[in-house]
């Protein structure tokens, strides 16, 4: 599995966004959103129970991520057509206005090393990737446990300070200062 300090691998995969049109071969790649922070989060499968709670949770914080010059990118191993159908079936998912990677060939999920060997779907993986495409944070949850999008935002805030941030640090809190010798 790729981890902190690793470069995001080169990839080009299908992507689906919105509910206005059928997928028409749109793609996203490692060079999309150059110079921006990226929050890439995978969920196991569309039309499930825990996944929509996470997608909606991230969607509710989309403006906060944008305020930090970060782009949200969702992903699963479903197709773009399945993504579209799921979005159209649920108004909260339809409102989740960020790209959804349709990694049904598991191109990126395999390169990241996040595919469950038994279920053949991606774990609940979250990557915070800096503007140079270097992974700065990784969390992986099992298939049955949802994430906390607010925690992802908190970690992004800490990473962007480029300072020493203590346990439970939040934006606006003091960072650690080393005593002069």
From TrEMBL:
Coiled-coil regions, chain positions: none
Alphabetical list of InterPro entries matching this protein: AhpC/TSA, Peroxiredoxin, Peroxiredoxin_AhpC-typ, Thioredoxin-like_sf, Thioredoxin_domain
Catalytic activity: a hydroperoxide + NADH + H(+) = an alcohol + NAD(+) + H2O
UniProt keyword Metal-binding, yes or no: no
Enzyme Commission designation: 1.11.1.26
Active-site residue numbers: 51 (cysteine sulfenic acid (-soh) intermediate)
Domain Thioredoxin as annotated: residue spans: 2-161
Alphabetically ordered keywords of this record: Antioxidant, Oxidoreductase, Peroxidase, Redox-active center
GO BP terms: cell redox homeostasis; cellular response to stress; hydrogen peroxide catabolic process; response to oxidative stress
GO cellular component, one term: cytosol
GO molecular function: NADH-dependent peroxiredoxin activity; thioredoxin peroxidase activity
UniProt superkingdom: Bacteria
Assembly and binders: Homodimer; disulfide-linked, upon oxidation. 5 homodimers assemble to form a ring-like decamer.
Protein name as it appears in the record: Alkyl hydroperoxide reductase C
Gene: ahpC
């Amino acid at each position: 599995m790729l981890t902190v300090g690793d470069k995001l691998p080169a990839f080009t995969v299908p992507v689906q966004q919105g509910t206005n049109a059928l997928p028409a071969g749109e793609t996203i790649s490692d060079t999309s959103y150059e110079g921006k922070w990226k929050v890439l989060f995978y969920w196991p499968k569309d039309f499930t129970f825990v996944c929509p709670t996470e997608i909606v949770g991230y969607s509710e914080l989309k403006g906060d991520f944008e305020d930090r010059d970060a782009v949200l990118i969702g992903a699963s191993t479903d197709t773009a057509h399945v993504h579209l159908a799921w979005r159209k079936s649920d108004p909260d998912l339809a409102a989740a206005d960020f790209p959804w990677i349709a990694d049904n060939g598991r191109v990126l999920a395999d390169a990241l090393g996040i595919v469950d060997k038994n279920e053949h779907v991606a774990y609940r993986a979250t990557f915070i990737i800096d503007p140079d495409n270097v992974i700065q944070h990784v969390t992986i949850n099992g298939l049955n446990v949802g994430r906390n999008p607010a925690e992802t935002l908190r970690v992004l805030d800490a990473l962007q300070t480029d300072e020493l941030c203590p346990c439970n640090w939040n934006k606006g809190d003091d960072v650690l200062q080393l005593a002069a010798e």
